[in-house]
Design a protein that fits this description.
Distance between the termini: 40 Å
Number of helices: 13
Radius of gyration: 56 Å
Number of strands: 12
């Protein structure tokens, strides 16, 4: 047996979605920030020559600017202490300035307040003389730098020294501060874009998850509803989605199966009813035709002797009984079909019951020139819970069916009772023409009649044995048959014994 797959409840799915929509973006943003900032920090560090750049370094403009030109500042400071003449050589300054230009910086050298070297392409020497700190300004001579504005903001790192002539000189490393801001701003913008993308894809993923769990299955149910509306029941509703909808799908599939079974049963019922009407028409037509013929014979004076008149009247009577029996059988069948058989169950001593039945049955069969033999192999008189009238109907229907197909001059029916454990088994054996193997499994079906039975003398409604089967099943028993063509047929049915339940 296939194990039923458990589905997630809608409430659980909503709770999970709530936590996912909160936690996933936070975790993803944190991871993105960690790796992205690390990558961008490394990239900015490589661009500006920062060996050990960190997020703290690039996020602090002052630290970043200082770190960018720290190597060149140290070089200038060492040169100012060891060989001031190098700071007067244009070639050396040009090489140093070229390095600084890659970092959005330049070098300027001032001697006694006059600019002797200007590495800037934007600022004139006059502007630098006016804006740059003077020799010996407090706090200027450090790596921390000072700022001045000339439309743009500049950071200045100053090294004061005296040259070989004893003149007061200053070397300045000047850096544009607005060149760093776009790097940081760009990184923040990119982080914002990544954050939005994370939120969008998380929402899309959750939407798809909820759709597959809720909206999709509802669409399937809508399609199934439309199919049923159109009268199409040849489809399958697959269980899917959340637990509540999965249960709904299973109930819907069960409903579809039942509707289909009902529709198929209705088709079969209509077919059986048509067959029943055909059988009734055939079975009633024969005795009615006979009655009509004999009545016309009486009216025309054909029955002109007391003997003929008596024979005509008896024939009419028998045909009327035949029709009455058929009508009663059909009436009882209608009760079977609607499960309205009026059972009256009671305790029956089976041996005594069959003794009484055999007395009445023997008289009936004797009139039809049928020998009845009864064998009771029961060791005691077991009790069964049954409806006495309906069990008698079972016996009569089986015996009547046997008589219909007897084709021998000496007609015999044997009835035996046997004890088979928890059941009492009844055997009704005849010496009729027998039943073909192909028909033996179908004789208890409603409206089934063998081809040989479809004649005016032996025909019946085809429901006698189906009534037998229904009654016995309602009693908790069963019926079956064995047969050999040309020899006869034996019908078997069992009834469960009644057992007292001890009360402690």
């Amino acid at each position: 047996m296939e194990k039923k797959k458990k589905s997630m409840k809608l409430r659980t799915r909503v709770i999970i979605s709530f936590f996912i929509i909160i936690l996933v973006p936070i975790v993803m943003c944190a991871l993105t920030f960690y790796f992205f900032v690390g990558y961008k920090t490394k990239s900015i560090g490589e661009k500006y020559g920062l060996a050990n750049a960190t997020y703290r370094t690039i996020s602090n403009n002052t630290l970043l600017l200082n770190a960018m030109t720290a190597e060149e500042y140290d070089e200038v400071e060492k040169t100012a202490k060891s060989d001031t003449s190098m700071l007067e050589e244009t070639d050396y300054l040009a090489i140093l300035n070229a390095r600084l230009k890659k970092k959005q910086s330049f070098i300027a050298v001032c001697e006694n307040g006059t600019i002797i070297y200007n590495g800037s392409a934007e600022l004139s020497s006059e502007e630098l003389e006016n804006e740059l700190p003077k020799y010996g300004d407090p706090g200027a001579n450090s790596q921390g730098g000072v700022y001045f504005r000339n439309e743009k903001q500049w950071m200045v790192k100053q090294v004061d020294y005296e040259n070989s002539d004893g003149k007061e000189c200053s070397a300045f490393i000047v850096t544009k501060t607005d060149q760093i801001a776009p790097q940081i701003t760009g990184m923040a913008r990119e982080l914002a874009v990544v954050t939005v993308l994370i939120l969008v894809f998380t929402s899309l993923g959750l939407s798809l998850w909820i759709y597959r769990g809720v909206i999709g299955p509802l669409g399937q149910l809508k399609k199934a509803t439309q199919n049923i509306k159109d009268g199409n029941l040849d489809f399958t509703v697959e269980p899917c989605g959340v637990a509540e909808i999965n249960d709904l799908c299973e109930d819907f599939e069960e409903m579809r199966i039942r509707l289909k079974e009902t529709a198929e049963e209705k088709v079969e019922f209509d077919k059986e009813n048509k067959e029943l009407i055909s059988n009734i028409s055939h079975d009633l037509k024969t005795p009615i035709t006979a009655v009509k013929g004999y009545v016309e014979g009486i009216m025309d004076g054909v029955a002109n002797t007391p003997e003929k008149m008596d024979r005509y009247i008896r024939t009419i009577y028998n045909k009327a009984n035949e029709m009455d029996r058929l009508i009663n059988e059909l009436t009882f069948y209608s009760k079977i079909d609607t499960n309205r058989i009026p059972y009256t169950f009671s305790k029956i001593h089976i041996a005594d019951y069959f003794d009484d039945c055999m007395e009445g049955l023997n008289l009936e069969l004797d009139a039809q020139h049928v020998d009845l033999t009864y064998f009771n192999y029961l060791e005691d008189d077991p009790v069964v819970i049954a409806d006495a009238e309906q069990i008698k109907r079972v016996i009569n229907n089986i015996v009547s069916n046997s008589i219909k197909y007897m084709d021998k001059s000496h007609k015999v029916i044997n009835i035996r009772l046997r004890d088979v454990g928890d059941f009492v088994q009844v055997e009704i054996e005849d010496n009729g023409k027998g039943i073909a193997t192909k028909d033996l499994t179908k004789i208890f079906d409603r409206f089934y009649r063998t081809d040989a039975s479809r004649n005016s003398t032996r025909g019946g409604s085809g429901i006698g044995l189906s009534i037998v089967k229904k009654i016995l099943e309602d009693h908790g028993g069963k019926v079956w048959a064995t047969s050999k063509e040309g020899v006869g047929t034996t019908m078997y049915f069992v009834l469960r014994k009644y057992q007292e339940v001890p009360v402690s």
